[in-house]
Every structure is written in structure tokens, then in C-alpha cells.
Design a protein that fits this description.
The complex is a heterodimer. Chain A is an all-alpha fold. Chain A has one domain (12-324): ABC transporter involved in vitamin B12 uptake, BtuC. In chain A, 73% of the residues lie in helices and 0% in strands. In chain A, helix 2 (40-65) crosses helix 11. Chain B is of the alpha/beta class. A six-stranded mixed sheet of chain B has the order 6-7-8-3-9-10, with helices on both faces. The two termini of chain B are 29 Å apart. The chains are: A mainly alpha, B alpha/beta. The interface between A and B is large, with 95 and 109 residues.
Chain lengths: 354, 860
């Protein structure tokens, strides 16, 4: 039995392990084959280009584990960036603008959270609607013209590096928040409850978990973090434009699913998502070096998304088949007489990592 | 019920014969070596305690499970049903406990969903189906119009529709799986009348049930199962109820329970006049410290609802809950746990256990906060908290981190009990605590309950298990139709008294307050007056009730005043422009509707459109002499390929469509960007014929509009008149139900995506000709307006409901608003906000309407 357990545990970590190995191989191969890939400047700009998207990923992991999703993050970021720009335009200092932007993002998240947790609308549809709504508001607020210049504090931050390294300052918020997210998700009561909600929402509720409150909070945090990402993004582009961060949700969602978070909820780890992030950064960097345009790069990311979904599904099917085989092999005449029709769906929810 | 039809036996082969049937699930043997036969014109009752293997037998007969051993013979032929449809084809029909009907579809269509009636032309004959369905419903005594949507029927009425479905399929063998569980006494009588009719018609029936009184009324023979094995098959007339109980239980009642009479303390929990409308009313009960109080009653009598109210899952409308004599408000389970109330749900898999979690994580879930230091969970503290309770359960396990799904049902239940003991409850509510666990584990659970009571915990135990109630309880409340029908103590607790009280109120609906509360309300809100069915007023009401009508009125209210602000709106050019753009968007919208009908969504339509448009235009540029058809063909093929890829990944990869099509949105647009790489097809690059084909008006109507109207008519007719079309609705309305009657859901999903792609391709062809410049940016972001138009048009995102007319209205309405705003000088980019808001509002309204309809439907 202990061997079975060890096996199960190794399997649970194997997707992260595989992905990590893949990321390392990818980087090594790219460094050798792609000219300029290992160049310090390239590393810095590649990471910086993903800085905003990386931030979206963290709250998304929580939401998707809790069986929800927020596809409006990029629009929230856009709107927050615009708010920042408007405050600056009105003569407000950097910090006030930043605070306003984050509050705006949190308010956007509150709207999503209210519609999902209080009115109980499906989050996919709600955030699809608010994706359009928030982006439309960007245009309503500034028309088509970007706001610039932006304060030196922001520009300096957006172009700075961490000491003498090639680590851009823009990724530092992520580097700070990722370990916090990992600890909250994996080590605190809150995180345990998030997994419980995704694993079985009813059981969680009956165990005293305030499921709707937690989902609401997750949306608010998602909005606030997206807003931070939005401000970073306008710093990188040096202007608050209404189409800032447009389409960024694709990368964030791809990273989450590639990272092994189950689309059925209840499963996933921050570590896997970090590896997935590294893979996507490397892939984008290679494509960039080959002068592939933004749409072309997005096409590749879209393909990665579909492949990771199919792989996840393959994993579920394999583990279901294995469970069925194991069940048939065991013919102990003991145990409960449960033969509910719910057998199949729940079993098929078993293990996502293949 | 005295004159049962004579049984025709021996001469011909039995309608169904099963021999040595076995079925194993994981570590449990659900059915082992069961044999019985079912003859034409008889009713065989299949009885047994919960978990005796009844439903597994039913599912094997229904083609849902394949037997691991043994044979099933139908009319003498050995059969192996691959799926429910195969069983259906052999004339074996099952009426399930929870009807698998399509809520958004009329009763008549539901009845014929599997095998529709057709006209000579091969199209669906809705008129004949409606008439035939009405005849069947009348025959079965259901006084509802066959046009009523199944979702508007009560559960009991849905069950009648299921029986009608079996009759329509000309079933020779009818299996009724606990058909009376949700029925009132009158409805049960009616059902039994139907069963008698069918018996004389030579239908072989199997009646699976719990209520012995009904079994004795309806059956000719009784087959008893216990712990998955056959005990005996007996002639109903030659046995007594006690005999059957003895066969079911396999032991004399009471031997499992040897609890010393305990001394009881003060009243711990008490309710006074607790009422939740439509669920239960005027519940007054008390539980003392150390007392085990049973709560008996049939399923649906309101027992579980009372427990949920005590635990804060449901809010009572009036009355009070008192803990230690002082009134408390239990507004959530979290609050209940704080107050020292624990609730072990009846639904272990659904509400008690997180299957992916380990034993430890499950056991510590309600108390996890107590194990943290500085917010971090400490494993040692976690183990310390639950080790005691787990030990008390005498649970055998290897590792706290073992996943709970590796345990048997009984052991899982022990973990659940331990979980609740760790919360240090003063009141423990147990809802069917031994349901579905084996006899040994059952005895263990009873031992634990006894110990806990001895410790001074107040225990309220809901149970349908008669021996359990008789053996383990100090007092028993019997609930019936939402009220406490009797309170029994000591020697009064007998099977007879409990059974009497549980069923007594059923006979006279009107006398009981709960019935007064609940029933008239249900019937007044859902049942139309039993007046003539097809009057003009009725027809008008139906028109008014249609979603499209409401939509039209709502849109008119918005557009008319807005358009009056600037009368430019009504200029001919403007209206033509509006019509053309609506046609383009509407075409894509129709495809989108098909996808949404199947409970999916296609975000990639705009990218597909763009790709098709560019391919068409660049083909026409490369081959200036090619006929117009060449460009159209290229666009159609491109669209179809894109749609098929979406559909294949969603349907066969079984992954969420919104995420998949978010990926293909980027993929198709990226492909277009790579292929076009900044290139733009200009009007002077292509032939005049290509530019002209969408502009040469035919009888003063733009070809674009003609195409859109043509497609709308064809799609509308196909959806209404062909089986394939109807199945698209069924697949989204209730995928599991569709599966049960053999509808190829995956193929329908693939088909919907393919047509969606094809129509996006067609729109691409129109676009490439209609607009002078075609490049990589064609229709970027158009998916938002398409989805908004479709959703505003009343197509429900939960699937199964929506019409082409609705899409047309939605598209026209949304674009009219856009036009008005554009004339008023609002830039186009702002409109995204309008579309986004439209999606959210439309979905909110839809969910509001559905929940309101559900709230009316209080049965359950």
C-alpha cells in the first residue's frame, strides 16, 4: 500500500516535473539554435513582455481551482491603466494614480464577483461580458488617443533592472506575489478551502466553508492584481492607451492550463504554473527573435492552449481507465454496496496530470 | 386490485429472463449471481434495502451497465445491450426515478424524442406527434397539454411523460425505478391504474420500490435482494408484509441494537413552529442531551429540509430554533458549526466527501482554522485534532494522506463522522447515516451513535431504515407531507405505527396544513385551468409568453424614442445599410446560436470569418478570370475546416468550448496574419464580377439580405422539422438525458460547430465582396457583437433554447441601437461596452426568469 501511495505521490508531481524538464530542454535548445536567445538583453525584454501576463496568472490559478474563471483580466488591466493615465493627466502623483488604478481594478473585480457569487451567474459568461464592457469603457474614457507622457517613477521602473542582473524590475511584483500565492494556496486554511470548493462545492459548503464569499474575494483580488499588471503594462509601452494589454488573457489562461491546473477544478499547483510561464516566455522569445508578429505569436500560444487541454483530457481518460482496470482486478467481497450512476463522472474527475 | 389479470406463463419464453447476473464495482460486489424472470402481463416487484443491488440490476437491464457475468434474455434471445438505445430497440424501456426529460422542450416532443413520427416526406410530423402524445397523456390521466414544456411540469407529471415515452416506443418490458417516490397519493392511484391497463395489454413490468403497501397493491410476484444477492422470489398473494421484511433484512429486527436505556439531560435543541413554505410547516420538536431521536417519513416528506434548516443551509420563513432554551439564528453552516450543530448529510458523495482529498484533509475541513499558526496549517495540529475521533471510529487505514476515495463507503462514512466529531458538536444531525453501507459497517455506526448519545450529545437521526429507527431511537417523529404526523416513544415505536403515520396523510391531501400551503400554490402557478386547450385566447397568451415577443417590445421601447431624436435614422440609405450589416452579423449569429444550443460557445467566429474573407479575396486576386463561385467555395471550405477543428476538439476532446475557441480565435487570426503578412487586397485587384455579386440588387433587395434570409429560413426549418435539428436542442438541454435515449450528442456538437464555421465562411465570402479592402484585420473583435446579438435574441447560454427568429430580432435590435448611437456621434469603439453590458444583462434576465420558474415549482 505504501508503494501505491508513493506511486500516487510521484504521479501527482510528475506533470510539474515533466514540464520543468521540458522548459529546461527548451531553453538549452533555444540558446544553442536561436541566435540571440541567451543574450542578456533578450532575456530581459522577453521577461518584461510577460510581466503583466504573469501577474494575471496568480489569481486565475485560484479561480480555476475553485471552478470559476476570469477572462476579463486583460480588460481590467486596460481600464486600470487608463485610470492611472487620467489621474496623472489631471496632475496626480504616481502613487495616487497607482492607488486609484488598483481600486478601479478591485471595483471591476467586485462587479464580476457580485454577478458570479451573489447573482450566481456563470463566471465564463459574466467575464466574457465584462471583458467587452471594461474594454469599451477604456475607449469611452479616453477616445482613441493614448495618454502620455507618464511619470518618471513608472517609466524608470518599467525600464529598470534588478541591480546588475538582467532581471527586469517589472517582473519583481510577480516574484514577490508568486511565493505568497503559493503559500496561501498550499499552506493556509484559505487555500485548503479553495481546493475544497473546486473538489466538491457542496461538501465544502456543508463543512462550513463560505463558498460564495471566497469566490467573491477571489474575483476582487483578481481585479486588483490585474490592475497592478495594467499599470506595469502602460509603463512598458510608455503610454496609457485604450488597447493596452488587449488579448493578454490568452497567455494567462494558457499558462494556467499548461501548468496542470485542471479545467474541472480542484487540482493544480503554483509550481507547475511557474514552469508553464517559463515555457511560454521562452516560446514567445524564440518567435520574437524570428520576427513573428503579435498575431502569429498568439496563434502559437493558442495552439499550446488547445494541446494542453487535450493532454489534460488524455490524462483524465488514462487515469479513469486505470482506475477501472484496478477495480476489476480487485474483487474483494467486502466494502459498501454503492453502485450509483454518479460513479462514472466523479471517477473521470480523478487525476489530471498525465 | 383483487382481480389481477391471469398470468400467462410457461408456454412462451419469458419477456425477460436474467440468469446468474453479477456486477462488480471496485472493491464492492454490487450484484452477485442474481436470477429472475419477468413474464408478459405481470408486475414483478424488485425489493431490498438500500444498497441491495436493485438499481444496479435495473441499470444492467436498461443497457447502462454491462454485466460482469451472467446473461440477459429478452423473449428468449440472449442480448448484450451496448447502450440504452439497444435496450430500447428490444422493447425494454425504463422510467427513471429522476426523469431525464428535456426541460426546454414540449412534453409531446419529449415523448417522441427517441423515435419521432415523420410525414411521408421524411420530415417531423409535429401535428401527429402532438395529437398522439395528447392521446397518451390522456390515457395516462395527465390533465396537461402536450404542448407544455417539460420543465414546467411537476416531477410526478414528468414521470407520467416518461411512461408515455415508453408507451410511444411500444415497449414490451417496462421497468419502473421507484416511480412513486415523488408522487402524491392521488398520483400513485392514477399510476397504478395505468399499470393495470398496461398489464391487460400484455406489457411485462418490473416495479422497483420501497413501500411495501404499494408493492402489495401492484405486484404479482416479489423478488427480494439482499446485499447484492437474490434471496427469494415469492408470490405476492401467498406472503405477508412481515415475511417480505424478514427476507429483506435477513435477521429479526432489533438484534443489531442492544443499547442500554440512557438517562437524558436537558433539552439541547428545540424548534417551535418552524416553517419553510412549500417544504415543511409548523415543525415543533425537541432533542435532549443523550437522546437519540429518530425522524421517519417517506422521501420528500420534508425531513431533510428540516435538518438543513437546523444546519443553516436553508432559511425558514417563520418559527424559531432554540439552543439551550435561547433562540438562535442559523444563517450558514459555518454558524451552525460554531453553535455546536453538526450535520452528516444523506448524500455522502455529493455533500460530505471531497473525493480528491486525503482522509486527513477531509476530516479536518470544518476545523481547519484551529490547526493554523500565523495562518499556516500545521500538519501535527491537524492530525492531533482528528486522530481521536478517527480512532473512535475504529477506522482501519494506512496513512492519513491516503485519498478518501480508496476507502469503502462504510469507511468513508466513518471519516465523515470523525470529521464532525472533531467539531465537538452538542447536536448531531444524521441524515440516513447508514444508507449504502454494508451491514457490518452499519452495526459499527450504530455502536458509535450509541456511544455518542451516552456522552451527552443530542442526536437527531433521519432514517428510512425501519430496523434502525426501531432499534436505535428513544423517540421518533414521523413526518408526512411537510408536517410532523406523529411522535412515538418507547413501545409505540413499531413498524406499523411509523408506516401508518408516514402514509396516513397521503390519503387526504386537503386536511394537512403543508398540503394547503404547498399544493394549491403549485397548481395555480403551473397548471393552466382544465379548460379547452386550443382556444384563441390561449394561442394569444402563448404568443405573448414567447421570449421573442417580449424581446421585440423591449427593443422597440429602446429604439423608437432614440431613433426619433435624429430622423436620419429612417433615411433609405441608412435602413439599407442597417439591413445589410444585420444580415452579415445575423448569418454568423445563426451559426453561433447552433453552437450555443448544444451548451457550447464559439469565440473564434470572427477569426474564421476573417480568414475565409482573406482567402476568398486573395483567390480572386490570383485568378482574376475565375468565376465568383471559386471565391465563395474557398471561403466556405475555409470556414468549414475551422469549424470542424473547433468541433472535433470540443466534442471528442471533451474540453470546455470557451477555452478551446479562445485558443482557435488566436490560432486562426494568427494564421491569417502570417499568410497575409500585412498584405491587403484592394478593389482594383479583383474582378468587377466579384465586387458586384453582393451589390446587384434582386427585386430591390440586397443579395446579402437575401442570403441571410434564405439561410435563416433553411436553418429554422431544419431545426424544426428534422430529427437532427431537434437533437441539436436535446443535446444542449440535457446531455445526459439525450445520451440515455441514444442521441449522438458528440456528433451534434461537432455538427453545430461545423455549421457555425461554414456560416462564418459564407459571411467571409460576402464580406470580401461587399467591403472594398480585405486584409488581416477583417472583423477583428466581431465575436463580441455576435454573441451579444445572439444572447439578446433570447438564446440561452445554458443550451437547449433559442430560435432563428430570436437571433434575427437580437441582431436587428442591437445593430439598430448601434446605428442610433452612431448617428448621435458615439464612436464605434464605445459600443463594446454596450455589447458587454448587453451580454451581462441578457444572462441576468435569463437566470432570473429560470430561477423564478423553478421557485414556483416547489415539488422535490
Amino acid at each position: 500500500m505504501t508503494r501505491v501511495l508513493a506511486f500516487a505521490r510521484s504521479r501527482a508531481t510528475s506533470w510539474e516535473w515533466l514540464l520543468g524538464a521540458f522548459a529546461v530542454v527548451l531553453i538549452v535548445v533555444a540558446s544553442i539554435t536561436t541566435l540571440g536567445f541567451a543574450d542578456g538583453y533578450n532575456i530581459e525584454s522577453s521577461i518584461s513582455r510577460m510581466a503583466a501576463k504573469a501577474l494575471f496568472v496568480l489569481p486565475l490559478v485560484f479561480l480555476i481551482i475553485a471552478r470559476e474563471i476570469d477572462i476579463s483580466v486583460a480588460s481590467v488591466a486596460g481600464l486600470a491603466g487608463i485610470t492611472y493615465g487620467l489621474v496623472v493627466q489631471a496632475g496626480g502623483p504616481h502613487l495616487v494614480a497607482l492607488a486609484t488604478a488598483i481600486i478601479t481594478g478591485a471595483l471591476c473585480g467586485t462587479l464580476n464577483g457580485f454577478l458570479v457569487a451573489v447573482l450566481r451567474l456563470p463566471s465564463l459568461v459574466v467575464t466574457l461580458g465584462s471583458l467587452a464592457l471594461f474594454r469599451g469603457l477604456c475607449y469611452v474614457l479616453v477616445g482613441g488617443t493614448p495618454i502620455s507622457p507618464l511619470p518618471d517613477e513608472l517609466i524608470g521602473f518599467a525600464y529598470g533592472s534588478l541591480g546588475d542582473t538582467y532581471i527586469p524590475l517589472t517582473i519583481v511584483p510577480f516574484l514577490v506575489l508568486a511565493p505568497i500565492a503559493a503559500i496561501v494556496l498550499h499552506r493556509t486554511a484559505f487555500g485548503r478551502r479553495v481546493y475544497a470548493i473546486g473538489g466538491n462545492p457542496d461538501a465544502a459548503r456543508y463543512a462550513g466553508v463560505a463558498t460564495r464569499r471566497i469566490v467573491f474575494q477571489l474575483f476582487v483580488v483578481s481585479g486588483a492584481v490585474a490592475a497592478l499588471a495594467g499599470v506595469i503594462q502602460i509603463g512598458i509601452t510608455s503610454s496609457a492607451s485604450p488597447d493596452s494589454a488587449l488579448g493578454f488573457e490568452l497567455d494567462a489562461i494558457t499558462v494556467v492550463f499548461l501548468g496542470g491546473v485542471s479545467f474541472l477544478g480542484g487540482k493544480g499547483k503554483i509550481s507547475g504554473v511557474i514552469w508553464a510561464l517559463i515555457v511560454v516566455i521562452a516560446v514567445r522569445s524564440m518567435l520574437q527573435l524570428q520576427n513573428l508578429g503579435a498575431y502569429g505569436q498568439a496563434a502559437v500560444v493558442g495552439a499550446i492552449l488547445i494541446v494542453s487541454l487535450l493532454l489534460a483530457n488524455l490524462g483524465i481518460r488514462l487515469s479513469t481507465a486505470r482506475a477501472a482496470r484496478r477495480a476489476r482486478a480487485l474483487t474483494l467481497p467486502s466494502g459498501g454496496k454503492t453502485a450509483t450512476p454518479h460513479n462514472q463522472p466523479t471517477q473521470s474527475k480523478e487525476i489530471h496530470n498525465a | 386490485m383483487d382481480e389481477k389479470a391471469p398470468r400467462t406463463m410457461t408456454a412462451q419464453a419469458p419477456a425477460v429472463e436474467v440468469t446468474h447476473l453479477s456486477k462488480v464495482f471496485g472493491p464492492t460486489i454490487a450484484v452477485s449471481d442474481v436470477s429472475f424472470e419477468l413474464h408478459t402481463g405481470e408486475v414483478l416487484a424488485l425489493v431490498g434495502e438500500n444498497g441491495a443491488g436493485k438499481s444496479t440490476c435495473v441499470k444492467m437491464l436498461a443497457g447502462l451497465y454491462a454485466p460482469d457475468a451472467g446473461e440477459i434474455r429478452v423473449a428468449g434471445d440472449t442480448v448484450a445491450f451496448a447502450n440504452p438505445m439497444a435496450a430500447h430497440e428490444r422493447g425494454v424501456a425504463v422510467v427513471h426515478q429522476h426523469p431525464g426529460l428535456f426541460a426546454d422542450i414540449s412534453a409531446a416532443e419529449n415523448i417522441f424524442a427517441g423515435q419521432p413520427l415523420r410525414t411521408r416526406a421524411g420530415l417531423l410530423d409535429h401535428r401527429r406527434m402532438a395529437a398522439e402524445a395528447q392521446r397518451l397523456l390522456d390515457l395516462l390521466g395527465l390533465q396537461r397539454s402536450a404542448r407544455t414544456l417539460a420543465g414546467d411540469l411537476r416531477v410526478s407529471e414528468q414521470q407520467i411523460v416518461e411512461i408515455a415515452r415508453a408507451l410511444a416506443a411500444d415497449a414490451k418490458v417496462l421497468i419502473l425505478d421507484e416511480p412513486t417516490a415523488a408522487l402524491t397519493a392521488t398520483e400513485v392511484d392514477r399510476l397504478f391504474g395505468v399499470i393495470d391497463t398496461l398489464r391487460t395489454q400484455g406489457v411485462a413490468m418490473m416495479f422497483v420500490g420501497h413501500r411495501l403497501e404499494e408493492i402489495f397493491r401492484v405486484s404479482d410476484r416479489i423478488t427480494v435482494l439482499r446485499d447484492g444477492a437474490l434471496v427469494d422470489t415469492v408470490d405476492t398473494r401467498s406472503v405477508s408484509e412481515e415475511d417480505v421484511v424478514r427476507l429483506m433484512v435477513g435477521r429479526s429486527i432489533g438484534s443489531l441494537y442492544d443499547r442500554a436505556p440512557a438517562t437524558h439531560g436537558d433539552v439541547v435543541i428545540e424548534t417551535r413552529g418552524l416553517t419553510a413554505r412549500g417544504k415543511f410547516s409548523d415543525i415543533t420538536l425537541t432533542v435532549r442531551a443523550g437522546e437519540v431521536v429518530g425522524m421517519a417519513g417517506l422521501v420528500g416528506s420534508g425531513r431533510t429540509e428540516v435538518a438543513r434548516a437546523l444546519f443553516g443551509v436553508e432559511r425558514p420563513d417563520s418559527g424559531a430554533i432554540l439552543l439551550d432554551g435561547s433562540e438562535v439564528t442559523v444563517k450558514s453552516p459555518a454558524r451552525a458549526i460554531e453553535l455546536g450543530i453538526a450535520y452528516v448529510s444523506e448524500d455522502r458523495r455529493g455533500q460530505s466527501v471531497v473525493e480528491d482529498f486525503s482522509i486527513l484533509d477531509n476530516a479536518s475541513l470544518p476545523t481547519i482554522e484551529k490547526t493554523t499558526r500565523w495562518g499556516i496549517i500545521r500538519r501535527k495540529a491537524e492530525i492531533a485534532l482528528v486522530a481521536g475521533p478517527l480512532e473512535r471510529m475504529r477506522l482501519k487505514f494506512h496513512d492519513y494522506l491516503q485519498p478518501i476515495r480508496t476507502l469503502s463507503g462504510g469507511n468513508q462514512q466513518k471519516v465523515v463522522l470523525a470529521k464532525w466529531l472533531a467539531t465537538n458538536p452538542r447536536v448531531l444531525i444524521l441524515d440516513e447515516p447508514t444508507q449504502g453501507i454494508d451491514i457490518q459497517a452499519k452495526a459499527e455506526v450504530h455502536r458509535i451513535i450509541g456511544e455518542l448519545a451516552a456522552q451527552g450529545i443530542a442526536i437527531l437521526m433521519i432514517s428510512s431504515d425501519m430496523p434502525e429507527l426501531l432499534g436505535a431511537c428513544d423517540r421518533v417523529y414521523v413526518m408526512s407531507q411537510g408536517v410532523v404526523a406523529a411522535e412515538l416513544a418507547g413501545d409505540e415505536i413499531t413498524q406499523f405505527n411509523v408506516g401508518l403515520a408516514a402514509t396516513r396523510a397521503l390519503g387526504d391531501d386537503a386536511q394537512k396544513p403543508a398540503a394547503d400551503d404547498a399544493q394549491p400554490e403549485r397548481s395555480s402557478s403551473t397548471a393552466p385551468p382544465p379548460a379547452p386547450r386550443r382556444t384563441a385566447i390561449d394561442a394569444l397568451r402563448r404568443v405573448l409568453r414567447r421570449r421573442e415577443t417580449g424581446l421585440l417590445i423591449a427593443l422597440a421601447l429602446i429604439i423608437v424614442p432614440l431613433s426619433l431624436i435624429n430622423t436620419n435614422f429612417y433615411s433609405l440609405g441608412n435602413l439599407k445599410d442597417l439591413a445589410d450589416y444585420s444580415a452579415l452579423l445575423g448569418l454568423v449569429g445563426i451559426g453561433q446560436m447552433l453552437v450555443i444550443l448544444t451548451r457550447n460557445i464559439d469565440l473564434s467566429v470572427a477569426s474564421t470569418l476573417g480568414l475565409s474573407a482573406y482567402f476568398a479575396a486573395s483567390t480572386m486576386r490570383a485568378l482574376p478570370d475565375a468565376p465568383v463561385v471559386a471565391g465563395i467555395g474557398v471561403a466556405l471550405i475555409t470556414g468549414l475546416v475551422c469549424g470542424l477543428l473547433n468541433g472535433a476538439v470540443v466534442a471528442y476532446g471533451r474540453v470546455p468550448s470557451i477555452v478551446v475557441t479562445l485558443g482557435t480565435l488566436a490560432l486562426y487570426r494568427g494564421a491569417l496574419s502570417i499568410v497575409s503578412s500585412g498584405d491587403r487586397v484592394k478593389p482594383e485587384d479583383v474582378s468587377d464580377a466579384w465586387l458586384a455579386w453582393t451589390k446587384n440588387e434582386i427585386l430591390g433587395i440586397s443579395p446579402v439580405v437575401l442570403v441571410a434570409v434564405g439561410v435563416a429560413v433553411v436553418v429554422g426549418l431544419v431545426l424544426f422539422l428534422t430529427q437532427r435539428g431537434r437533437e441539436t436542442y436535446y443535446s444542449g438541454s440535457n446531455p445526459e438525458g439525450a445520451d440515455l435515449i441514444g442521441i449522438p450528442v458528440q456528433r451534434r456538437v461537432l455538427g453545430a460547430f461545423a455549421v457555425s464555421g461554414l456560416l462564418a465562411g459564407a459571411t467571409g465570402a460576402l464580406w470580401a465582396s461587399y467591403y472594398p479592402y480585405v486584409d488581416g484585420q477583417v472583423a477583428v473583435g466581431l465575436e463580441t457583437s455576435v454573441i451579444a446579438a445572439v444572447v439578446v435574441g433570447g438564446v440561452a447560454l445554458r443550451g437547449g433554447s433559442g430560435t432563428v427568429v430570436g437571433v434575427a430580432f437580437g441582431t436587428l435590435g442591437l445593430l439598430a441601437i448601434r446605428k442610433v448611437l452612431t448617428i448621435a456621434g458615439v464612436p464605434d469603439q464605445y459600443l463594446q461596452a454596450v455589447y458587454g453590458a448587453a451580454i451581462i444583462v441578457a444572462v441576468s434576465v435569463d437566470v432570473y426568469l429560470t430561477t423564478r420558474a423553478k421557485r414556483r415549482e416547489v415539488t422535490r
